[in-house]
Structure formats: structure tokens, C-alpha cells
Amino acid sequence: MQDAIATALEKKDFRTAAKLLQQWRQQDAKDPRFLLMAGQYQEATERWEQAEKAYLAVLRQVTSAKIMAQARQGIQRVQASVAQAKEHALETARAQPSGQDPGLMCLEPVVGEPRQTAAQGLAKVMGIDAYMARLQVPSRSWRLYRVGPVGDLQYYSQALTEAQMPAFWVKLADIKNLPVFRVQNFRRVQPQAEVICMNADGQVGAIAFDWSEVTQMVRGQIPLFESVVDVGAWRQLKRAEKTQDYAEVVDLHCHGRRCVLRLCDRTYDFRQGNPLPNAEAIPDKGLAMRPQWQALVQYLRDRVTGPDHDGFSKFGDSAIELIDLLPPLKPQLDIARVKESNWDPTFHLYSSLHFIRYNAVTAASAS
């Protein structure tokens, strides 16, 4: 039986090989030679994962040095074939017209029991330790995972998704080409809204829009650092940077106009008036505009019927470490600081990804 199956595999007569294996399974499924030939059949038909499992089963069940050596050789062939197929797929992806363009890849959050399967998929595809993979699977927000050529990211995101670890990739050009307007203030909020805003070139103008045009909202808190003096070991004074406050940012996404309206509590100008319907009931504390800002944010949340994304803090924890690997981004934020902070472009990245993903998900739903 073993020789007949080997001959069929050599002739690529897979139908005959499968028929003989089925007969052998019915006679003696525990025969280690059957497991070995089953592995060779899976290998010949390029079912690499099943082939490796079959060879590993042989190693666990037999003591024959000859059969164990054949199983190990089979595992080595399978691993070599997988590596070769992976490299071929990467080369094909890189050879596409935009395969060498810069981009980034994010892992999507996974909760509950699927996390274990997702971690196994991440470990297998990326070739990392299983324990490390479990730590890297996000549970609440996207995780910026890789920066590099679009071809590589396209391959890895597809492989990860097939391995039950959902991921997506984005071209950096799509982020850099997204128009963002820094809102100075609302001129009116009803029945239509109108904002005074500034574009990336510093030009000031007005944009009027219906609230139905706002497809979603993205909110985040950007840490503000100050240099402070702490008492260290042995009561020695040392200077360090610590988070002293947060700047709140709210983005309104208008996909029909393909633009983002960005508001920040540090730069929004309430001195031009507050057009909210209940403006007179909002406490006025002079230079402290906090109550007015909170009322404005609540008003926006009530008017925007689309998604309200506020998972920036979790995303930022992973993205801040990779943001320097990206070309400079223009976050359209003018927060007073002693020196620039990577948290500004990190929020810009987070919001831009939501803008792009909204388009992708909407297109997928429509098709």
C-alpha cells in the first residue's frame, strides 16, 4: 500500500493516492506509515499546514528512527516550501505599480475567546513567539503594527486576516492628501452650520454645511508636557518631563466633501461669540472657557448621528513609538508648547485612519 501511494504521488495521480489512503485509513488508521504517507499526500497537494500537522503526529507516535527521520525531512521540506511561497507572494506584491509606496498596517481589536486564535495567527504569520503575540493583540482600539512598503503590508494584512487576526493597510499618500481645516469658531450652528477655519496654507475662510454631511466624529486628548523638578534617590533634584494637562481635539468628518474639520479647546475662539441655542445658560467664567467648550462638544455629539470614535489614547500608546518612522505629517494643530510633540501627528494619523476606513467599509457594504 505504501509503495502504491508513493508511485501515485510521483505520477501526480492524486485521485488514486487519496483513494488508497482512504482504504488504508479504514484498515489501520494508527499505522505510523499511514500517517507518514498522509503527510506526503498533503505536501504533494500543497496543503502545507495539514502536511506539517501530519508529520508532527508521526513524531509524537513512533519510535522508529527511520520513520522519524522521514517525518523530520518532511517538516523541513514543508517549511522550505512555505518560505519560498511567502517570498514569491511578497515579490509579486512589491512588483505592483504602487508596491513600493510607503504605508502602514494596523491590527484590529479582538475580544473574548477569539483572542487566542488571533494570537496564534499573529505568531504564525509574523514568526514571533506565542507569548509576545498574545501581548500584541489589541482589545480596545487599533494597534499601529508595521510601517513599510505597501506591497509587504498588503501581503501581511491579508495573511493575518486569513489567520483570524484582522488587520488592514493604508497608503501614506491617502493620509497626507486628506484636507484638514482648523476651525477657529462656529459662526452659526442652525439650521445650517458655518465655521470660520484655516487651511494648511494658512488661508482663512468660511465653510457652511448641513449636519447630515458630518458622517462621523473623532475625539481625543493630547498630553501636554512640562519640565518639572522632582526629588530623586538620595533627595537629589532632577528635571523631568511630566504630563501636566491634556488638549482636547474633536474632528468632524465630511466624506461627501472629502475633508476634516478639526476643533481644539486650546485654539477655539469663544470671543467671537457662542452660537449655541442655550449659550445664555452656560456659565461664563471669563478667560476659563471650559464650560463653553464642554457644552459645544456635547452639542456636536447630539447633532452627529454617525459613529463617535474616542479610542485615541490606546491607539496612541502603540503608535507613538513608530510615528518617527513615517514622513512628517501636518496635524493642523497650533497648541502652544515649548517644543513640538509627536502626539499631534499621532492624533492626526488616528483620525485620518478612521476617515479612510469609513470609506473602505462603506464601499465594501455597498458591493
Gyration radius, in Å: 29 Å
Question: What does the main sheet amount to?
Answer: 7 strands, mixed
Whole-number mean pLDDT: 89
The helix content is 40-55%
Kindly state the number of beta strands. 10
Distance between the termini: 51 Å
Shape: elongated
The number of distinct helices, counting runs of at least 4 residues, comes to 12
Class from helix and strand fractions: alpha+beta
Spatial order of the strands forming the largest sheet: 6-5-4-9-8-7-10
Strand content: 15-25%
Q: Extract low-pLDDT stretches.
A: none
The H-and-E topology, N to C, reads as HHHHHEHHEHEHEEEEEEHEHH
Jot down its keywords:
single chain; alpha+beta; 45% helix; three-stranded antiparallel beta sheet; 10 strands; elongated; 12 helices; seven-stranded mixed beta sheet; 367 residues
